[in-house]
Amino acid sequence: MKPPKQPEPGANGFRRFMQLAAVFILGMVAGSVAYNVIYQASYNQLWIENKDLTIQLHQAEEDNRTLKKYNRQSTVIKEIKVRVEERDPPLDSLAVKEVAKQLHEELEVLRGRNMFDIDSDAKMARTLLNRKIYTVREKEYSIQIKTMLVSEGVLQVWVDMRPYVRP
Fold first, then answer.
1. What is d(CA 123, CA 112) in angstroms, rounded to the nearest whole number?
2. Which one of 108, 112, 137, 158 has the lowest number of neighbouring Cβ atoms within 10 Å?
3. CB 148 within 8 A of CB 126
4. Exposed, middle or buried: residue 165 (CB in 10 Å: 0-12, 13-18, 19+)?
5. What's the whole-model pTM score?
6. pLDDT, tens digit, for every residue of 23-64?
């Protein structure tokens, strides 16, 4: 019977070095994955906040322009606010903001109109926009106008927004 083969003197040190190098490389990969996840999450949050602030800025500029134009008239619609009702499984916040922006742009035709003559215009807007489908980031959403209220030159519109399912 042959005696067991003895490892060469440098082989044990080389094997230990390879194990340490493998652990180090795996640590680098895990660290870069964790860093990338954190970076993407913070970038996504920053992008959503930027989109929200851009929408707010656009609406504020429109309101400012209208207020300057109609500052002497107290019975016209100077400002339009779109409010999307909350849902129990919350919708994507960016989609809600984008649909509200698109609806706001479609309601711009009512800006500058007399508040007392808004009844026929509101009925027309409700008929045209009710059950309308909006596409945001390749997803479709339908809206239903719940309430339209004019008070002190501000037209407030409450809508119900749902993901649209094709029949």
1. 17
2. 137
3. yes
4. exposed
5. 0.65
6. 999 999 999 999 999 999 999 999 889 988 988 898 888 878
CB 107 within 8 Å of CB 157: yes
Q: Which amino acid, one-letter code, is at 83? A: R
Written as six digits, the tokens of 65 are 């322009």
Strand partners, 149: 156
Higher pLDDT, 126 or 96: 96
As a whole-number percent, the residues of the chain with pLDDT over 90 amount to 17
The first and second tokens of residue 18, run together, are 């390879």
Residue 132 main-chain phi, psi, to 5 deg: -75, 145
